[in-house]
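Design request, tokens follow.
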């Protein structure tokens, strides 16, 4: 399948992009931890790979150029990933032999893997994408790559040949979902084939080279029971969340960046009945619903002429014409908040969404401000009445200063008193201190509310006894912790 290419072919850099776009990529893993307890002192840089010298990159460039001259990319694109990798390894071994390159077996294997990753995968990112303990990958130009492990950010030894190689990989990633990133369109949201969320911001906006951020999620979807083991929620608190999801409460999950909002949303979707029609709306599709009747929708940026954009509001409005039973919005960040409230208030019970806010009270204010900024000239009292009649429960997630993640509030929206929205907490998280290793210690405690507002809803679904038992267990656990 290999043969000398004719003269006048594209330069190696363009061919690398072409090969990667046509050949199958490797499967990557996902990660979003739910509350590990890291050490306070920052760990040293993670030696993901041995630092490489300029001589290594010169040798790799020479062998890579010879490979591109020898390889038939059209034939390579017809092979599956493993077969293509074996073919590339064979030809590289021949090149090393012909050019009398002296390498140890370990060095040769490292070089083979490195070049295969460049041609078929995402280059230096491959070792990071293969690790399941990494939550975020942050590339700040060609020479500095950071990762988040167990809630702590550390510098790695990963580096790219130059900013051009990094830009090629960014273009390769976004092109696979029909998007583009270049000087005329320097900001792009995309996703990997496995659903990992990707953001790219390129020069001239990024001064020191392209900035690539990848939010990874666990390959195996987390459950509320696992969040209990991580300490993110107490067992009775998790039971209450299961009931809230089961009885079709309208839920808003609030939290800061990296607090675990999407992970928690994924967990709650486990309690949607299998016969319900669910429609998801996301900027980059990353939710992992397991139900058989799911329609996944994704926004679209404008094309090169500046037209053809499909916004989150367009998707949410269209949902209402698709006979949904539940609507799930990956992240509410603009005027689509109005349409989501309309959906929640017109028979689509059990709808869910996430948004950025630091407290449940701030969450309500943000919903109001997003609707106002969208150009809706409604009186404040009318807006708040709409919020009260639409949202049943706010679940607050927080990333603590030691890197752990906790569900800090389960809060009900009760109604209006004058022009003020009244809320009540079913459960809160109280920080008690920290241990010798610098890990924060705390407890989830009940607030003494005997019957939540959604009690009648729980009775309608036959869950009132289970709810009463969960609240009683939460109160008794709080008393035991206080003692």
């Amino acid at each position: 399948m290999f043969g000398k290419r004719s003269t006048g072919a594209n330069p190696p850099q363009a061919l690398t992009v072409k090969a990667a776009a046509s050949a199958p990529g490797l499967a990557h893993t996902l990660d979003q931890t739910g509350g590990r307890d890291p050490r306070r002192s920052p760990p040293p840089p993670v030696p993901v790979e041995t630092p490489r010298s300029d001589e290594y990159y010169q040798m790799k460039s020479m062998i890579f150029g010879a490979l591109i001259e020898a390889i038939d990319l059209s034939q390579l694109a017809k092979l599956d990933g493993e077969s293509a990798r074996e073919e590339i390894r064979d030809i590289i071994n021949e090149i090393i032999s012909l050019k009398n390159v002296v390498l140890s077996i370990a060095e040769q294997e490292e070089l083979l893997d490195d070049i295969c990753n460049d041609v078929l995968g995402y280059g230096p990112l491959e070792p990071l994408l293969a690790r399941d303990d990494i939550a975020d990958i942050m590339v700040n130009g060609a020479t500095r790559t950071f990762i988040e492990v167990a809630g702590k950010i550390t510098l790695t030894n990963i580096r790219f040949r130059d900013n051009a190689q990094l830009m090629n990989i960014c273009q390769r990633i976004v092109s696979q979902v029909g998007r583009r990133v270049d000087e005329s369109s320097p900001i792009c949201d995309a996703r990997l084939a496995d659903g990992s969320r990707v953001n790219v911001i390129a020069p001239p906006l990024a001064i020191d080279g392209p900035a690539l951020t990848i939010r990874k999620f666990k390959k195996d979807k987390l459950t509320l029971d696992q969040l209990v083991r991580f300490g993110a929620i107490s067992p009775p608190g998790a039971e209450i969340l299961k009931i809230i999801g089961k009885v079709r409460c309208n839920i808003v999950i609030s939290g800061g960046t990296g607090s675990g909002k999407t992970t928690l949303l994924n967990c709650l979707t486990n309690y949607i009945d299998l016969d319900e029609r669910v429609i998801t709306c996301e900027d980059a599709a990353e939710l992992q619903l397991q139900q058989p009747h799911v329609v996944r929708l994704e926004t679209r940026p404008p094309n090169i002429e500046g037209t053809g954009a499909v916004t989150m509001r367009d998707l949410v409005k269209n949902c209402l014409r698709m006979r949904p039973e539940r609507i799930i919005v990956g992240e509410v960040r603009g005027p689509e908040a109005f349409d989501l409230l309309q959906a929640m208030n017109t028979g689509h019970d059990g709808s869910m969404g996430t948004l950025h806010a630091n407290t449940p009270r701030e969450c309500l204010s943000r919903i109001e401000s997003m609707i106002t900024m969208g150009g809706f000239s409604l009186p404040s009292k009318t807006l708040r009445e709409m919020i009260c009649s639409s949202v049943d429960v706010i679940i607050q997630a927080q990333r603590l200063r030691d890197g752990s993640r906790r569900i800090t509030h389960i809060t009900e929206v009760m109604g209006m008193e004058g022009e003020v929205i009244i809320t009540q907490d079913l459960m809160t998280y109280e920080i008690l201190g920290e241990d010798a290793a610098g890990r924060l210690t705390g407890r989830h405690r009940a607030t003494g509310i005997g019957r939540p507002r959604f009690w009648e809803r729980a009775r309608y679904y036959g869950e009132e006894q289970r709810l009463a038992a969960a609240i009683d267990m939460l109160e008794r656990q709080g008393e035991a912790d206080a003692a």
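Comment from the thread starter after seeing the answer: thanks! Residues 54-120 form one domain.
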